[in-house]
Amino acid sequence: MPDADELVANALAAVRGTDVRQAERQLDHLMVGTGAADGTTAVDAALLRRLVRGLGRLWPRGWQPVDVDRITSRRLDARSAQLVRDAMAVQRREQAEPVPAWWDEQLHELAAEVRWDDDRGVLAGWSARVGLDRADALRAAVDILALVESLPPIAVLRPPPGTTGAATARPAGTGRSGSPMLDRVRALLAKAESTTFPAEAEALTGKAQELIARHSIDEALLAAGSERGDLPGGVRLGTDAPYAGAKALLVQEVAAANRCEAVWSDDLGFATVLGWPADLVAVELLYTSLLVQATAAMLRGRAERRPGAGRRTRVWDESFLNAFALRIGERLRATTEAADRAAAETAGPERLLPVLAARGEAVRERLDTLFPGVTRHRLSVRDAEGWSSGTSAADRASLDVGGGRSPRQVRGRPDPR
């Protein structure tokens, strides 16, 4: 009989192929095990070992725990993501030092923690926890392994564990800071999400953007007086279906309003945002909130449509969300520009403007370094009514932020849908 590692390799090769019967035969062999008394346990251990090795190879290739969790949930399912979290907890014990604090924070947020006494029982414990019999658990584990080993390299946004700079890497985007300003922003956005009055929601969002813009200027001036040679960082924000392209556009618009650059990887289901730490925090907070607000506005808009217009709901929704994103982006940028003008009057344009220009150039250089072959996706509108409704939904606030710029293009590949 083949040993456990060979059985796993055979099953993986068969699953990657096109012969369904061969794949089922190899999965049957996994069920039988090695023929030894502990043959099934040995198979479980071999699967876990290979999955842990596969995860370890992803970290130097740009992947972070939250990225792997997101794509596993997207391409497989939530139960599969739970096994990946268990494997990440095992892999964490094997990681070379130094391990940055943000890495452990991601694992903690994912609840990727050791919950067993013996690694040989990880697969069995997971299958019992998610309600899978052994055959389905083995099939799912092999599919997970095939996914993890097929993931391509992506941009390395922060030094992974065991590499130079990992111990001193500063936080990138994180909305969990104890900053009083961020607490005020979160409170404003929470109110904006909960109100049933569109004008109030957008006024609250505008106020949040004003606070964020002021904070960004303060951070820029503070950093200009220090000796640190930091580079802009980055975060990845999910843009899953439905309407992935509209979500990517919203990321792009929020990023542009907060001195950041965004690149959409539609095949992987996320947009990468590059910028300075305080600005990345702003983008995360605003994008999350605005996505909730846009969805609520879209649902209200559906109810207001004229009779007989419901046959093109998907096209209408997409046009609505695209228009909402573009108009909100214009308003947010205008708020930032107003904050810049006010700050320049206080600090002096000769002091502030060169600082902001230098930071913007550093972000663009980071973009060119990490994404040298970026392309642009031109926005198309297929429902005029949806576009008009989305623009109106983003215009209802009384906040006067005129002077918006022309619509922006979204970097990335066109959505095949």
Description:
This protein is mainly alpha-helical. It folds into 2 domains: 4-150, no CATH class; 180-397, no CATH class. Helix content is 63%, strand content 5%. The protein has 15 helices and 5 strands. The strands form 2 sheets. Strands 1-3-2 form a 3-stranded antiparallel beta sheet, with helices on both faces. Strands 4-5 form a two-stranded antiparallel sheet. A hairpin with a 4-residue loop joins strand 2 and strand 3 (270-275). The chain is globular. The two termini are 47 Å apart. Residues 163-174 have a biased composition (Low complexity). It comes from Micromonospora acroterricola.
Task: Give the tally of structural domains.
Answer: 2
SSE order, as H and E?
Answer: HHHHHHHHHHEHEEHHHEHE
Helix count from the secondary structure assignment: 15
- Tell me roughly what share of residues is in helical segments: 55-70%
Beta-strand residue fraction: 5-15%
Beta-strand segment tally:
5
Record the strand order, biggest sheet.
1-3-2
Computed structural class: mainly alpha
- Radius of gyration in whole Å, from Cα? 24 Å
Low-confidence stretches: 397-410, 413-417
Task: State mean pLDDT (0 to 100 scale).
Answer: 86
Q: What is the terminal separation in angstroms?
A: 47 Å
Biggest β-sheet strands, sense, barrel: 3 strands, antiparallel
Q: What spatial form do the alpha-carbon principal axes imply?
A: globular
